[in-house]
Amino acid sequence: MKSILGIGNALTDILAVLPDDTLLRKFHLPRGSMQHVDMETGDKIWSTLKEIGVKYVPGGSAANTITCTSIFGMPSGYIGKIGNDDLGNLFKSTMEQFGVRARMLYGTKSSGRCMVFITGANAERTFADYMGSALEMGPDDLKPEYFEGYDYFHIEGYLVQNQDLIRTAVRMAKDAGCIISIDMASYNVVESNEAFLHSLVDDYVDIVFANETEARAFTKLERREALEELSHHCDIAVVKVGKDGSMVQSGDEYHYIEAWPAATIDATGAGDTYAAGFLYAHSLGMPLRTCGEIGSIIAAKVVEVIGTKIDVPRWRDAKAEIRKLIAAAGK
Ligand SMILES: Nc1ncnc2c1ncn2[C@@H]1O[C@H](COP(=O)(O)OP(=O)(O)OP(=O)(O)O)[C@@H](O)[C@H]1O
Ligand SMILES: [Mg+2]
Question: Nearest-CA neighbor of 116 among 108, 127, 104?
Answer without folding.
Answer: 127
